[in-house]
Amino acid sequence: MEKFIRHRIGDERLVRLILKWLNAGVMEDERADMVKWLQSVVRGYFRYHAVPRNEYRLRTFRHEVLRMWLWHLRGRSQRTRRTWDKFLEKLGNLLPEVEVLHPHPMPDVRFASDHPNWGGYIRGKSAG
Predict the structure, then answer these.
(1) Considering the chain, what is the average pLDDT of its residues?
(2) Taking Cα atoms as reference points, which of 40, 101, 45, 93 lies closest to residue 66?
(3) H or E, element range at 2
(4) How far is the C-alpha of 5 from the C-alpha of 113, rounded, in Å?
(5) pLDDT for residue 25
(6) DSSP states of 66-109
(7) Are the C-beta atoms of 58 and 46 separated by less than 8 Å?
(8) N or C: more exposed end of the chain, with fewer CB within 10 A?
(9) How far apart are CA 111 and CA 121, in angstroms?
(10) pLDDT for 46 beyond 70
(11) 3-state secondary structure of 46
């Protein structure tokens, strides 16, 4: 890599700066930060929207995040060989799976409230 950089860039000061930057691990940190950020985005979406009968939207959101991530990774290379299947093998399991986090309470608990129309009263009038 160093040989390639020296061949492509003539300014020695710039070459030293680039090599220092690469040796510091900036590129690796960027990938790790992106994974952490995407995990937090998906986890946050799931924490808010993960209710019963919403699994389809959760799967769709996760799929779209993965699709945009692959599109971003493909865009960084002029000659990409990344396919959807290879991407899912290597990176697809890094994002959280779809699961319902907020199950509905039991119907007897959910509807046990003190409503003014319950208990024999309808709009303030006695039912008797």
Answers:
(1) 76
(2) 93
(3) helix 2-8
(4) 71
(5) 57
(6) HHHHHHHHHHT-SS----HHHHHHHTGGGSPPP--SSPPPPHHH
(7) yes
(8) C
(9) 17
(10) yes
(11) helix
The number of beta carbons lying within 10 Å of the beta carbon of residue 63 is 13
Beta-bridge mates of residue 126: 121
Gyration radius (Cα) of the chain, Å: 27
Q: Which residues contact 11 (CB under 8 A, 6 or more apart)?
A: none
Q: Give dist(CA 7, CA 104) in Å, integer.
A: 63
Q: Which residues contact 128 (CB under 8 A, 6 or more apart)?
A: 120
The residue behind tokens 């046990």 is: 112
Please give the structure tokens belonging to residue 101.
């986090």
Please give the Cα distance from 53 to 115 (Å, whole number): 27
pTM metric for this prediction: 0.60
Sign of the four-CA dihedral 106, 111, 114, 120: negative
Rounded to whole angstroms, how far apart are CA atoms 121 and 127? Answer: 6
Give residue-wise pLDDT tens across range 68-114.
Answer: 888 888 876 677 778 889 888 888 888 889 888 877 766 555 555 55
Q: Which two tokens stand for residue 34?
A: 């992106």
